[in-house]
Amino acid sequence: MANYKPDLSCQNKFIPINFAEQILPGTFEYALCYIVENKLDLTGFDAWYNNDKTGAAAYSPSVMLKIILLGYAHGLISSRRMKTIFCS
User: Fold this and answer.
1) Which residues cross the membrane (predicted)?
2) d(CA 24, CA 31)
């Protein structure tokens, strides 16, 4: 069983912005989130993570896939560049 970090994109306790309300229907970002969350079967990634008893929690494959696909859509192919753009 895989142990993933919780997806806190819908939380509004520490950040005054609820990201789920910021993504507008009809935009590419909304479509990307909808497809990754509802249409893709990401259970194949669970076999790679054997950290349920030991080890740190990993980021959810759906969150990572959204970041990578959004970066590619904006022309970013370097993970270091994605980090500087999306995590600043």
Assistant:
1) 56-73
2) 9
| In contact, 58 and 50? CB cutoff 8 Å | no
What is the domain partition of the chain in residue ranges? 23-86
Output the 3-class SS for 8-54: CCCCCCCCCCCHHHHCCCCCHHHHHHHHHHHHCCCHHHHHHCCCCCC
- pLDDT for 23-37, tens place per residue? 889 999 999 999 999
Torsion of CA 9, 84, 36, 51, to 10 degrees: -80
This prediction has a pTM of 0.70
| DSSP annotation of 59 | P
Per-residue tokens: 77: 């192919």
